[in-house]
Amino acid sequence: MADVEIIATYELYNINRAKLEHLIHRIFAPARLEIEIKDRFGNPVVPREWFLVPLHAIQDAVTKIQDGSIVKYRFDPKSAKLLEQ
């Protein structure tokens, strides 16, 4: 619903895209933006893919996805970083 500015890209290999998206949603769920906005027709929309996560936490998550250790971490919105469970 708005223009996007790409600030980083990552190459991941041998990963199922649907599972990767589900994993990212699960990890960053505590930082999901709870907002309702109107679309161009005035209908209310609740975005499910908007997260308040700093770039350093995303970079850390990508590294942990690559090495397989992401399953041992959760995102803490208060400290804005991944913490070991």
Write up this protein.
The protein is α+β, with helices and mostly antiparallel strands and 85 residues long. It has one domain. Helices cover 29% and strands 14% of the residues. It has two helices and four strands, in the order αββαββ. The strands form two sheets. Strands 1-2 form a two-stranded antiparallel sheet. Strands 3-4 form a two-stranded antiparallel sheet. β1 (37-38) and β2 form a beta hairpin. The termini are far apart. The mean pLDDT is 93. Pfam families: MUG113.
First-to-last CA distance: 35 Å
Segments where pLDDT lies below 50 for 5+ residues? none
Oligomer: single chain
| SS class | alpha+beta
Kindly state the mean pLDDT as a whole number?
Answer: 93
Number of domains: 1
3D shape? globular
- How does the major sheet shape up? 2 strands, antiparallel
Name the helix and strand elements from N-terminus to C-terminus, one letter apiece: HEEHEE
Q: Which properties best describe this structure?
A:
85 residues, alpha+beta, two-stranded antiparallel sheet, two-stranded antiparallel ribbon, 2 helices, globular
